[in-house]
Each structure stands twice: as structure tokens, then as C-alpha cells.
Amino acid sequence: MAAFVLAADVISKAIVVAQMPGHAPIRLLGGLLTITLTRNGGAAFSIGTSMTIVFTAIAVGVIVYILRTARNLRSIGWAVTLGLLLGGATGNLLDRIFRAPGPFQGHVVDWIQLPDWPVFNLADSSIVCAGVLVVLLALRGIRLDGTRPVPEARSPQPAISEPDPSELDLSAPHPSAPHPPDPDIPKSEYPEPQSAAPGPAEARDRAADDGR
Fold first, then answer.
1. pLDDT tier at 179 (50, 70, 90 boundaries)?
2. Mean pLDDT of the region 77-104
3. pLDDT at 203 exceeding the cut of 90
4. What 8-state DSSP symbol labels residue 42?
5. Nearest alpha carbon to residue 62 among 86, 96, 45
6. Sign of CA dihedral 15, 19, 24, 30
7. Beta strand pairing call for 108-113 and 26-28
8. Residue 27: in which H helix or E strand, if any?
9. Which residues pair with 33 in a beta bridge?
10. pLDDT digits (tens, 9 = 90+) for 45-90
């Protein structure tokens, strides 16, 4: 992608520089598109024309950063985005290095004009498209390696909440406590005698009586 953008930018600028000097602007599509020749010492769309050296240094830094970041690319979207940015930044950087008025102070060739819009070139268009794609990829949460951030897991809710001691009914009997007698049930006047187990002496006498 970067090579395609760079080749298209360099070829188009070479044709315009060779054909347009002394030529009237060419109006196309009923005036929607005009081909003209201007030289820009600033950034895209003729911004900051007195800071040519600063924008040259920024372009060099952007290119170095993209080349270092490209080693970790695993996303097609980011590959296209950085390719557009690299091709556009390199195209304008070549103008600043090799064109007049001097090395690293050269003016960029602009030749595309739209109604009510500053004159620009294909490199500027590529940089703007890359900026739009950066915003879209960031909104979708896509990283350079093609992954997306994993949402944080919610904390588990307790299955049973602890009872409030103030709400406990202390008057209720504990399950292991003996139940009091029911007053509605009448008691027997003659309680049943409980049979006691015979002692050893009684057991021997009964055995002797049975043997007689």
C-alpha cells in the first residue's frame, strides 16, 4: 500500500511539474475538480508555510515510527492505515528534501483543487484517509496485533446473605432444645409404672424356682 501511494504521488507530481508551468488551470467535471500547480512550504493544505524544517523533522519521525511498528502488525486494517500514512509522509518528504529552495526546505507540489478547499496532492489525501481509519479502528478497539481488549469479569454475587443479628427472633426455641409439654393435653392421674431390670440375685432365685 505504501509503495502504491508513493509511486502515484511521485508520478502525478512529475507530470504536473512538467506540463503545468505557464499553463492555465484545467477545469474538469464542470468545475468540481481543477488541476493547477502550486508550491507549499508548510504542511497539508498549506498550513504553517513558515515551518518547513519543523514539518520535515516530523515527517522523518513518523516514517521511523511506522517502520518500527510494522514488525508487530497482525491487523489488515492497521496495515492499510499505516501504509497510507507511510506512503503520504514519504511522498511529501521527498519534495522537502530534493525540491527548491534547498535540501530539507523544499516546497511540496500541490495540484488538486476542489471548490472552497485548499490545493492538495495525493500524499495529503492519503494522510487524511489514514487519520480517518485510525479513529475508526480505535473506536472498534482493534489493536496493532489484531486483538481486542477482553472485558473485565464481573465479581460473583454471594449465594446466601448473612442474616442481621438484630433481626433474629431470640424467643424462638432452638431445634435441639426439648419441647415443653403441651398444656392442652391432659396428664394421666395414674402414671404407668416403669419396669426395672431384675438384679443378679433375683435372676438366680427365679432360675432355681423354675427348676423345681
1. low
2. 92
3. no
4. S
5. 86
6. negative
7. unpaired
8. strand 26-28
9. 28
10. 556 555 677 778 888 999 999 999 888 888 999 999 999 999 999 9
Spell out a b/e string for 52-78, using b for 16 or more CB atoms within 10 Å of the CB, else e.
beebbeebbebbeebeeeeeebebebb
Check if the beta carbon of residue 27 is closer than 8 Å to that of residue 34: yes
Cis check for the bond before 183: say yes or no (omega within 30 of 0). Answer: no
- C-alpha angle 61-65-66 in degrees, rounded to nearest 5: 120
Separation of alpha carbons 205 and 40, rounded Å:
136
Cell triple for 77: 486494517
Measured at the alpha carbon of residue 116, what is the angle toward residues 33 and 127, in degrees to the nearest 5?
A: 75
Amino acid at 168: L
For residue 40, the one-letter residue type is N
Intra-chain end-to-end CA distance of the chain, in Å: 125
Grid coordinates representing 23 are 499553463
Q: Which residues are catalytic?
A: 110, 124
Cell 454471594 locates to 158
